[in-house]
Specification:
With 335 residues, the chain is α+β, with helices and mostly antiparallel strands. The protein is built from eight helices and 17 strands. Helix 5 links the parallel strand 11 and strand 12.
């Protein structure tokens, strides 16, 4: 068995960040994951899945677990001298830690509990994270520009999936690797190395309850999928947790779609701490990610809680969706 620590110190080859720094980040992540994993395992025997009378920056109801996970990440990240600041889905503003913001080398983005609305019915949920290098000089306070970087500047991203097993999936610009938490050893053990999307996929994941408000190109793509039953049948599978739906597509081949709708004209998923980390993983696993027009990782963010349409998965399926979207836009212009 290869532990997470052993893997990092023997297989890491990203010159942008040292082995010691990577391991310190994973030590923090692993510690909070153990706490979240414990609370998740209690299920509805505890009050951690109860809705609070609070909402996050996006107007979504928070549950107790959202707040506990967010506070744990903040408290533990304070102890990491290399973290200059963090952005969380559960916080309206950028969070900085006194002297760390002057001398910390990295910016940390976190969605503490992805899919938390599913927690009370025992559906897999997750944690999404990514790390960027700061752009301001060391020795001065960081600014908003340190956070408003395109996803192609990430040096590390990943997610944790809390399901029948607790899975860590990450990339440090050296392939995508999957680790499984082993309770007896109290650490993550390598499960799969250098994971790639299958060349073809036959699963699409989308909330079809919103079909009537989808753009025309997405409607046409879904009809295309449904008409493939005589050739290469494409099945619909949707959990409602980004991490869970993406993980299935990564291993089995497929595409995750969250287009803009009438209710969410600019998309619903958050660019900085949902779309970018997942897109970075997708491309490192030979997949693709787009907003329907351009590569997700090339989008220049305008604010930290910006949203975006999101299509990610097997490269050929993403290209097909993009073609349907662009063709429909072209038809609309002609008409």
């Amino acid at each position: 068995m290869i532990s997470l620590r052993k893997f990092i110190f023997h297989h890491h080859n990203n010159f942008l960040i040292s082995k010691e720094e990577i391991y310190s980040f994973f030590t923090i992540i692993e510690l909070v994951v153990k706490i979240i994993r414990y609370h998740v395992s209690l299920g509805n025997t505890s009050n951690f899945f109860q809705k609070k009378n609070t909402k996050n920056i996006h107007g979504e109801n928070q549950i107790t677990l959202d707040i506990i996970a967010n506070n744990n990440f903040k408290d533990i990240l304070k102890t990491c001298s290399n973290i200059a600041g963090i952005v969380s889905e559960e916080e309206k503003k950028i969070i900085t830690f006194q002297e760390q913001e002057k001398y910390g080398k990295y910016i940390f983005f976190i969605d503490p509990v992805d899919g938390s609305s599913n927690a009370d019915i025992n559906i897999p949920i997750g944690t999404i994270f990514s790390i960027y290098p700061r752009v301001s000089p060391i020795g001065i306070s960081i600014s908003e520009q340190d956070f408003l970087q395109p996803g192609n500047q990430q040096i590390m991203s990943g997610y944790i999936l809390y399901g029948p097993a607790t899975i860590l999936v990450f990339t440090i610009k050296s392939g995508v690797h999957i680790f499984t938490y082993h309770p007896s050893y109290e650490t993550f053990i390598l499960s799969q190395k250098n994971v790639k999307f299958p060349d073809t996929g036959n699963i699409y994941s989308i909330n079809e309850g919103n079909y009537n408000s989808f753009p025309k190109g997405i409607k046409k793509y879904l009809q295309y999928c449904k008409n493939q039953y005589d050739q290469n049948p494409i099945s619909s599978r949707y959990v409602g947790s980004l991490v869970a739906d993406f993980h299935r597509s990564l291993l089995k081949g497929g595409i995750y779609l969250y287009p803009n709708t009438q209710s969410y004209m600019y998309g619903k998923l958050r660019l900085m701490y949902e779309c970018n980390p997942i897109a970075y993983l997708a491309e490192e696993a030979s997949g693709k990610a787009t907003n329907g027009d351009i590569r997700i990782l090339d989008i220049i963010p305008k604010f930290i809680h910006q949203c975006s349409p999101f299509f990610s998965g097997t490269a050929s399926m993403v290209e097909m969706v993009k073609k349907f979207i662009l063709d429909s836009q072209s038809d609309s212009i002609k008409n």
